[in-house]
Amino acid sequence: MKPQIKSSAGNEPEPDSQEQDLIVSLLQENERLQDEINRQRERVDLFQSVFDCLPDALAIADKDRAIQVTNPGLSNIFGYGASELVGKKTAVLYESIKEYEKQGRARFNLSADDQLAPYQVQYRRKNGDVFTGETIGTPLRDRNGAVLGYLGTIRDVTDREQAHTALSESERLLALIASSLPGLVAYVDTDLVFRFVNSTAEQWYARPRDELIGRHCHDVIKADVAQALGPTLETVLAGKNVHERAIVSYPDGRTRSVERAYVPDIASDGTVKGFVSLVIDVAAQKDIEDELNAAKMRFSDAISAIPDGFAYYDKDDRLQIFNERYRQFYAKSADLMVLGATFEDIIRGGVARGQYEDAIGREEEWIENRLAAHQNPGGALEQPLDDGRWLRIEERKTLDGGTVGIRVDITEAKERELQLERLAVTDPLTGISNRRAFFDKIQREHEQVCRDQGVMSLLLIDVDHFKRINDTYGHAVGDQVLKQLAAIISGELRGQDAVCRYGGEEFAVYLSDTSMGGAYSTADRIRLAVERARFSFSKNNEPMTVSIGGSQCDHRDKRYEEALVRADRALYRAKNSGRNRVMIEPLAD
């Protein structure tokens, strides 16, 4: 039925049928356009939410490399305020203009051609600290493909680089140790190609290392020696250790009485990847013993010089090599770290003495998980200790089935990481939960309520006449009022409840396992607590008041947002009914 349009004056004619149709059409078009605008706003809000949630630093720059938009991740990593960088050139983020000219400009141009490979750059935080960042630049184009600007993604990889540096240094020291041994040491792959040789191999084979690496064994040793070695190589490539003595003529012109050991390199799937060859000239046993003792001293010095904790457990998982730093990290179990002690005994002793903070209350489960990670090392582990320190543990299996491990103190980096995590879920002004963390919690709680057929309630709290406070006393006083209100509200809640700063002078409260009646009681208790409180700005003891709207939420709500909408309507009624009151809107049957 078409709407009946009546004239406001009795003597004016009514619109004819065409005019009515036109008006209806215009109203319908206006409604459609409004729906489209709402959908576009929802898309923008969704994009902004994703943009803000990413932990990496994001910056959108225009074609002139001027920063236009940043996310909270950039503020967390670089220390700048949300809008402090807007309009500034991207060069401000680099360690120096020289670093920018070296990396930034070239990479900026490459990203315009869709060359999006990550690269590492030295950046500088606002406080002056320099760090390594892994960066990807992505061009932003219009519908015709023209570049409008760029999206830069920056990840702080300082801790990863430090761990890699420490591990590389350990590998360098181990290679140095291998080269210092008096015997011939070589690694040969399954194609019988040299992949590693030490300095003794260079001497005996009368070739420099560069000429030996990548060369087939038969191109280096004499034909008769190669023929005699055939059965031995077949055995070791079948995955079996070989120890033997022989008299061998070497390319340097000397014939030696040697003891040879061949150890296969067996992968986790049982396949042989190659073998390690150790050949010792036993004719000069005394010289070898002297050299071996010297090598042991060098090895001990090298291990002691490593700034991080080092430990080697043999194939039976017994401690064979470690430095003092390793013992220092584990003060409560240091006396258990003696040669021959098993890793499990040391771990169990440490757990019994409270060495490991995250083991308390689940000791056997923790021990089982730690032993599994030790026997089958994968990625790095982060381990909290009882004294507040954090260690990064990187372990690797050796060719003979042992385990080598490095412990790096990452306490400072971990504290920064935990601080950033706290900042990510906390409102910076009031110290209570922020919206994102609050919504994450009530999303989980609503899912649990739906599973258990339980109940929860949500409250929205708005400060009455807050604008008057800001206008009269200033925003600094307004901020103090919000802090005090947050403390008052928190003090009226239980441990399982939650409160967040919902926006401006508005707060949201989650009440666990609380029906409509309980929600009203809690809300009114909060209202009275605020009304009775005394605020520093009020010289005449004039009370501060709040209006509160609430609603019960249970399995009948498909989404918790439905309860928020009801609470918002109830808050609106409370404000319109004179303020300083509580209104609860029930869930419609």
List the defining traits of the structure above.
five-stranded antiparallel β-sheet; 589 residues; alpha+beta; 4 domains; 17 helices; disordered N terminus; 20 strands; 24% strand; Beta-Lactamase; elongated
Q: State the CATH architecture of the largest domain.
A: 2-Layer Sandwich
Termini separation comes to 31 Å
Question: Into which percentage range does the β-strand content fall?
Answer: 15-25%
Using only C-alpha atoms, the radius of gyration works out to 36 Å
Number of beta strands: 20
Count of domain modules: 4
User: In the CATH hierarchy, what is the superfamily of the largest domain?
Assistant: Reverse transcriptase/Diguanylate cyclase domain
**Per the principal axes of the C-alpha atoms, what is the gross shape?**
elongated
Oligomer: single chain
Strand order of the largest sheet: 2-1-5-4-3
Unreliable spans = 1-9
**CATH-defined topology of the largest domain:** Alpha-Beta Plaits
Number of helices: 17
| CATH class group of the largest domain | Alpha Beta
* Main pleated-sheet profile: 5 strands, antiparallel
Fraction of helical residues: 40-55%
Quick check: average pLDDT? 84
* Classification by helices and strands: alpha+beta
